[in-house]
């Protein structure tokens, strides 16, 4: 019976490459189906054997914990260096696009609420 290990929809290329390398390093006999261009099929990593699936899931779980920690550390470094931030950071860096997005939000909200408000 086939076992679906991981969905590839919205997975960055570097993460998918790292998982392929992980599986190849540990001799996991997997196969891959690509996600469709229009997002209809999810694609993913698969194995046929149940025991192999269990081993691959353990490897994936360890990898995901390590990747999460790496991404958090990178975010903290970027935050400390001033490369990322919240709303005010974005407003200072890109005022026109930020204000345009806020205006769009207000317009959409007004159009959504308008039928329920009687003036």
Automatic annotation (TrEMBL):
The keyword Transmembrane applies. The chain crosses the membrane at residues 96-117. Keywords: Membrane, Transmembrane, Transmembrane helix. It holds the Pfam family DUF6164. This is Membrane protein. It comes from Marinobacter salarius.
